[in-house]
Amino acid sequence: MAGPSVPTDRAPSRVEPRLLWWKEVLLVVGFYLVYTWVRNRFGSAAVDPADAYDNAEIIIDIERAMGSEFEDTMQGWFLGADWFLRAWNIFYGTFHFLVTGFALIYLYRRYPRDYPRWRTIGLATTGLALVGFAAFPLMPPRLLGDCGEFGACIESRYVDTVAELGSWWTFGSGAMEQLSNQYAAMPSLHVAWALWSFLILAPRLRHPAARIFIWSYPWLTLFSIIVTGNHYWLDAVGGVVVLVLGYWLGAWLHRWSSRRLPEQPGPYTAPGA
Q: β-strand 263-264 against 13-14: which pairing, if any?
């Protein structure tokens, strides 16, 4: 008859918390609602358009000094192709959420051990972007020639493609214009989230079509934010910076929270065994 088993020695391990989908939904949705409220509450409704325009001049002057102010020229190549620009308006307004949401759900379902770390990195990146919006309210290219409440009403070659051509959403409606932050341009959260999604999905997707799309997605996002007149290319650089900082902060927060988990002691090894 076999005797009692003698466990082998091993280092204590952390007890990983069980992921509950409804808690994760509450966390992510709750965070985004708070983020949206803060972004909009202290956004364009509370900012002097002259200040946002002054910051736009800073960005434009930097790009001109670098010989890289090309956004209006690139947009001009496609003016007249209404169907093309309308498609990019839809891309800009929808893929930002669809791809990010897919990456989060895919990671939760297929790689639950990796999920908490990347979720925290995404939340940290989004929170840091909020700091950028508050510290540097920036009038986007589409509003430079706009003579409404939030525009600069100057001679500009930029076109607000959503206002002119339409999409599934618009900043120009009365409620959206008043409630949204028209000057949340630096950093580009579209680019930050696109790169976040890329870092999650690129090493894990196996289908060739899916891999082609996810490798193209950050570049498609960069194209969309410029051709629609919503961002300067330096806003995309800001998105990269905020993701790098968010990666560092989120990874640190995840390690810190993991160290606070209770330890599960390793089995005892008999002396001399």
A: antiparallel
